Amino acid sequence: MRKVLLAFLLVGYPVIGCSNQEKHINYTSPSRQEVDDFISEHNIHPLTIEETEDVTILLLQNGIYYLSKNNESDKLVEDYVGWSENDDQKVNLGMSNTGMPHAHVIINDERLLDEAKEVKVEFHDGTTVIQPLDGKRGMILFYDKNKRDLTIHNELHLTIYNQDGTVIYEDSF
């Protein structure tokens, strides 16, 4: 491995770092068969599955799996973020604010789920994402599904609408 030492003078303070000249490892989303095998092997029941160019996200009642395929080793790479189940709340709302920021919404209340038709998430800067619910209990809403290496503020507002466009639930995180 060849590394290059970089040093700069910035406002009177030295800044030193290393740069790796080798090619970076590329990751892609695993195939649908690999995802299905993972689900079966781990005996999990995703509420929703979202695929991007380099990761597949499995939203569960109590956590999220991020699955990628290392193109050099051809191995599946998994990362899990979990939380305690909180079924007593009507809606669980959370987010990841780095990398490919996204919010996740899990509707626990059956009556709300039956009535809900559309979900809107507004991020801290006014960026708004609206998705139809399509009868799913869980969904992932991306700040920008095409951008990587972003960091946003850990703030969002959720609004759920019924078929008439009436607000039937609101929450902030």
Break the fold down into its secondary structure elements and pairings.
Layout: E1 3-10, E2 13-20, E3 27-28, H1 32-42, E4 48-51, E5 56-60, E6 63-70, E7 75-82, E8 91-96, E9 98-99, E10 102-107, H2 110-115, E11 116-123, E12 128-132, E13 138-142, E14 150-151, E15 156-162, E16 167-172
Antiparallel strand pairs: 1-2, 3-6, 4-5, 5-6, 6-7, 8-10, 9-14, 10-13, 11-12, 11-15, 15-16
Structure characteristics:
4-stranded antiparallel sheet, 5-stranded antiparallel sheet, mainly beta, globular, 10% helix, 173 residues
Account of the protein in words:
With 173 residues, the chain is mainly beta. Helices cover 10% and strands 52% of the residues. The strands form five sheets. Strands 3, 4, 5, 6 and 7 form a five-stranded antiparallel β-sheet that branches. The longest helix is centred in the first third of the chain and has 11 residues. The chain is globular, with a radius of gyration of 20 Å. 18% of the residues are buried.
Structural class: mainly beta
Beta-strand share of residues? over 45%
Question: Can you summarize the main beta sheet?
Answer: 5 strands, antiparallel
* Spatial shape: globular
How confident overall, as mean pLDDT? 84
- Bin the helical content: under 10%
Radius of gyration: 20 Å
Let me know the number of strands. Answer: 16
Secondary-structure element pattern, one letter each: EEEHEEEEEEEHEEEEEE
DSSP helix count?
Answer: 2
Q: Report the span from N to C terminus.
A: 44 Å
Uncertain segments are: 1-23
